Amino acid sequence: EIVYLNGEFVKKNEACLSPFDRGFLFSHAAYEVTAVFDGKLIDFDAHMARLDRTLDGIDIPRDGLAERLKSLHEELIARNGVTEGFVYLQVTGGAYGRRDFGGPETLTPGLFMFCETRNLIGEKAQHGVSAITVEDQRWKRRDYKTTQLLSQALAYREAERGGAFGAILHEDGMVTEGASANLWVVLDADTLVTRNLGRQILPGITRQSVLDHLAREGITVEERAISLEELLGAREVFTTSATGLILPVVQLDGKPVGTGKPGPVTRRVQGQYYRGIGADLDA
Ligand code: PMP
Questions:
Q1: Does ipTM come in above 0.90?
Q2: Per CATH, which fold does 123-276 belong to?
Q3: What is the pLDDT of residues 132-184, one digit of tens each?
Q4: CB 180 less than 6 A from any atom of ligand 1
Q5: Which atom of ligand 1 is nearest to the CA of 142?
Q6: For residue 269, which phi and psi values (nearest 5 degrees)?
Q7: Which ligand 1 atom is nearest residue 46's CA?
């Protein structure tokens, strides 16, 4: 397996980074994860636009980065022979040989990329997953995709310890999103709801793509905060993300969601999205 680190393609186990990197010391880093299906990058431009926004938000220069990233993605995919999976990229504040909160006036970013082969539409998409609800303890700018992921990592550890697949985060009685995915619920009368954008959640690329698909079919979505109570009483729940695409959540805190099986609205959204990338559920 070949990864890309600060200007070079190197073997995965030979990649070395300074421990003084601001990404390592302060989580001063942006990241993106782009799905690859049939050898092609899904929604690449949207991921890069979000990366630019995060970099601007966390004061890391992005001069010339955009032009290089497309070909770096393609080269990494080719070198590793990935046809289905994802590419991960991380832009850090760079390394300066000392731990200094402020650092130099203009940072010189570091760049790390790797890719992985993964079945994007598999068992979990077919049968659904279980999740637990966990208090959202993240910082206040969750709309930036940074590597400050400690609360998500802890939420996943808690889920896994309890035999669940993932976690759904909430604060003050309202649901924010999944630990690494946006959240959608189907309430009575087929009302589809997902949280409105703002500083509280990540503006998911898959979320936007699903919204676009639904709009084309004339299906309305309520974009608003969902209470924990609504979530726990929902008929259907599903998540969207680049690596999971659309995953039905069929069990929450040990209790079945609706019938305990992926519901009709979720199936419809999956069908639409999969067709959009040239796949189907049995792929
Ligand atoms: N919310 C959070 C907190 C995430 O980590 C992710 C996945 N990176 C998402 C939502 C989904 O975003 P996307 O569809 O762009 O992968």
A1: yes
A2: D-amino Acid Aminotransferase; Chain A, domain 2 (3.20.10)
A3: 999 999 999 999 999 999 999 999 999 999 999 999 999 999 999 999 999 99
A4: yes
A5: 3
A6: -65, -40
A7: 15
